[in-house]
Amino acid sequence: MTVRSAATATRATVHGYPRQGRNRELKKAIEGYWKGTVTAEALLTAAAGLRRENWQQLTEAGLHEVPTGDFSLYDHVLDTTVAVGAIPARHRAAVDADALDGYFAMARGTQEVAPLEMTKWFDTNYHYLVPELGPDTVFTANPAKAVTELREAVELGHRARPVLVGPVTYLLLAKPAPGVAADFQPLTLLDRLLPVYAELLAELWTAGADWVQLDEPALVQDRTPAELNAAARVYRELGALTERPKLLVASYFDRLGEALKVLAKSPVEGLALDFTGPAAANLDDLAAVGGLPGKRLVAGVVDGRNIWINDLEKSLGTLATLLGLADRVDVAPSSSLLHVPLDATAERDLDPQIARWLAFARQKARETALLARGLREGASAITAELAANRADLASRAGSAVTRDPAVRARAAAVTAEDTRRAQAYPQRAAAQRARLALPLLPTTTIGSFPQTGELRLARADLTAGRIGAAAYRERMEAEVREVIAYQEKAGLDVLVHGEPERNDMVQYFAERLTGYLATRHGWVQSYGTRYVRPPVLAGDISRPHPMTVDWYRYAQDLTDRPVKGMLTGPVTMLAWSFVRDDQPLADTARQVALALRDEVTDLEAAGAAVIQVDEPALRETLPLRAADRPAYLDWATEAFRLSTSGVRADTQVHTHMCYAEFGAIMTAIDELDADVISLEAARSHMQVAHELADAGYPREVGPGVWDIHSPRVPGTEEAVELLRAGLAAIPAERLWVNPDCGLKTRGWPETRASIDSLVGAARRLRAELTG
Questions:
Q1: What global pTM score does this model have?
Q2: Which residue from 260, 273, 278 is spatially nearest to 319, judged by alpha carbons?
Q3: Residue 274 and residue 286: Cα distance in Å, rounded?
């Protein structure tokens, strides 16, 4: 078996493709396996079928080379951990007993062992499982998945290119394993890891791979000389191997910067570069290093992370310039298409003209193939397609959907006073404590409660017209009554209404704001089997009517305890949407912030003493290059304050963040000026509490004591120990007790048991502290 061939004219390819299937068949199969209703054989058969469909779609779109190995049952970084044998000691027995169950144990944990930590993949909303490494880590090559999927594609007649996370990125993404010194540097394990990658490459070569793609997105970040030297060494040594495939080193999400010269000089046969957004600077950088003589360049000119159609003439101009800078130029999206939905033609509810502005994964594959044809045969070969593209771009630019003069005038009139609370935090804290009268270590949850099958069925019935709005409202009110009664009985101090009426924390609001478009089938993987439908931010934003006030009033009338008003913050509304590419993000953020400010003001007028404005995406949207971060953090924190600064001193403003590396934004967290912040802390063992303390953070903090992204139920003792660790950093009078995140994805039995542990731990420590 072989897929080797001589170099040919310009080809079209992609880095990766959505995994879920048209109707999220992968999610259903995996969750069925977890429930015991789908066998392992049936799960693996379903996955193989989806891979076949993906390759067929790409080939039919006109692509000349398809990726393999990008498909995953949970996460591609976890797949790499398996491929290099870096299984944590606590998971080894499960992996040895059953590879599939052990794989999911690393991803989700079990009642006996905690999962791997999860965090954001660079500046996207995709979550990866963080490798845990230490001085005793032993790597062992496990090429089974990579080789199997390559052979599947080849046997189906596809020209296939296996994709692996590169060794430098893998080590730079890793963390010290539990019990290992915090200053341990995983990159010191490079000598052990390189032979394993050499073995993986040899196995793929033997299986017939012509090219292998090694993804190194970590190299688009600021890197030290030592890290750049490590990259140079890696590709010098891998390039020196004899029996190996050709190597394509891929970067994306930003300019390659200092690492470009390193890789250009290395003996690898090709580089894949992003030429969209901030990564457009790669064009000048590539010219500055003398291009890539003798090498293949895979040019990412189709935006792999957003859903707007490509400007084909502009991309052809970029590609024409690149032709003189490499031996061969192929065309690709800027990154894996994992970050966009599958097929825009499924969105039959959209206005047909607006639908022509959109390109999901299948459309982007066709755009890629079309550009390759235009580069190969000349623009005259695609004259009709270019004319249609110009018309669609002009239609969008001139549409009344995109611009609202009143919104723009209001945003332009914002002053500095509009973005600051009238009182300093100490005065606010005193007023809030007097108003709320909460106990030491107050307990709460983050917002959502389990979205049961009954709730989803009611929403589906409403959408399908099987029930009316009144019946739906009645069902949601019944759920709110149950949730409020449960929280009172459980002993929580600050309650939530549970958000049963919300399909998603961004989409719910997007459907009630002007300027947004909603999709029905635009699912994108967030982590594992968790898929979201990011709305499309198409035009200027305003709030025609209150969005949450009625639900807040209904819930608060059921209890004497404070109920939080719950909103999604402006940065997260952008980060978890497909944003406009025709104006600066800061301008869009200010528009969203003003709409939310109106909602916050109305919630306060309705009696809300506690209002939570969630910003879990503040860290993930942080630019990858340090030089770009100050400007982003300035407008991001200003947008949050603009949303929240119009309330009285005795109204307590909360915010929430989860699953991110918070150390890089400690100053920004302070700049939000929220009265209380809750953050993920369970998987990272209260690390964030100590980071906040070290930064001198002066306000109240709720570091999570329950990892809600795992089915594990923490016991009271476990919660007590985590709280003790939190108390070692944060004084008791400023410490809250809460889960890591919302409970939407959890079931009621584990929710009740976990909240019992949470409340029990708070009560025990409260008693100890007060004598």
A1: 0.89
A2: 273
A3: 11
